[in-house]
Amino acid sequence: MTTAVTGATGQFGGLVVDGLIARGVGASDIVAIVRDEVKAKSLSDRGVQVRVADYGDVDALRSALAGVDKLLLVSGSDVGQRVAQHTNVIDAAEATGVSLIAYTSVLKADTSGVSLAVEHVATEERLAASSIPSVLLRNGWYWENYQASLQQAIDTGVLLGAAADGKLAAASRADFAAAAVQVLLSEGHEGQIYELGGDERLTYTELAAVIAQVSGKPVVSKDVSEDEYRSILEGAGLPDFVAEMLASADAGIARGDLDTDSGDLQKLIGRASTPVAEILG
């Protein structure tokens, strides 16, 4: 059984490759699909099959997927281009006889109002039309997404956002990766949609209290409008599309788009999710 992981030099894909090996999969039975072979040297040194293919290169993708049984399609990072890119991967998988595609989507993709959901929904629809059985790993928000602004919150004593009193069922990147590993290594997941979120369903007020606890300094949350938050992020130097994504995500938290009590993550990984204090501490 050969398992391929796209974006294998990225943070999420790398954790999945590590998880597969830790679970006893032989490195030579793992195909790491990457854009930059140099960045994948540590993988090839461990015996992983490294195959170079950009999401935009269908011929290279077909070569990379030759002989692959199961594929984890890690969603691309090029906002606005992902539907075409993901379609290329799925087309190549169909052409090469892949037997299962697991796709990293976003929580509640089909009903979510967050800007990120649009491309995920389109990819899910392409998978539904495919001859290849698929499983949707609808990942919630990563707690690590707050690490970039953590020091500012500690220094200013304010966790700024636009999430109102909405709850956020985030989890660590490693927890979501562990769920993907479980799906790849076990049977019976075809056609399943997993709504993945952590045990801690926190408001920003509660998240600020956790930051205060781990830092030893007072931190409170301050809520602004989505438009205001977007402007503040742009003023801080973030690219427009990043500011839009983060502001839209916060608005989604306020609506409940990034909250779930499904228990799907916990069932897949066989334990509770990693506490946010461990991630941000």
Structure description:
One of its GO terms (molecular function) is NAD(P)H dehydrogenase (quinone) activity. It contains twelve helices and nine strands. By secondary structure, the chain is α/β, with parallel strands linked by helices. It has a domain at 3-140 and 171-196 and 261-273: Rossmann fold.
Task: Annotate the secondary structure layout.
Blueprint lengths: L2 E4 L4 H12 L7 E5 L6 H5 L3 E4 L5 H7 L5 E4 L8 H15 L3 E7 L10 H12 L5 E6 L7 H10 L1 E4 L11 H13 L7 E4 L7 H12 L4 E4 L2 H10 L4 H16 L8 H6 L6 H5 L1
Parallel strand pairs: 1-2, 1-4, 2-3, 4-5, 5-6, 6-8, 7-9
Q: CATH class of one domain, please?
A: Alpha Beta
Shape label: globular
Question: What sequence of helices (H) and strands (E) makes up the elements?
Answer: EHEHEHEHEHEHEHEHEHHHH
- Which bin fits the share of residues in helices? 40-55%
| Unreliable segments of 5+ consecutive residues | none
Task: Fill in the CATH topology of one domain.
Answer: Rossmann fold
* Broad structural category: alpha/beta
* Known CATH architecture of one domain: 3-Layer(aba) Sandwich
Strand order, biggest sheet?
3-2-1-4-5-6-8
Total beta-strand segments = 9
Q: Radius of gyration over alpha carbons?
A: 19 Å
* Largest sheet, strands/sense/barrel: 7 strands, parallel
Approximately what portion of the residues adopt beta-strand conformation?
Answer: 5-15%
Q: State the helix count.
A: 12
* Quaternary organisation: single chain
Mean pLDDT: 96
Intertermini distance = 39 Å
Give the full name of the CATH homologous superfamily of one domain.
NAD(P)-binding Rossmann-like Domain
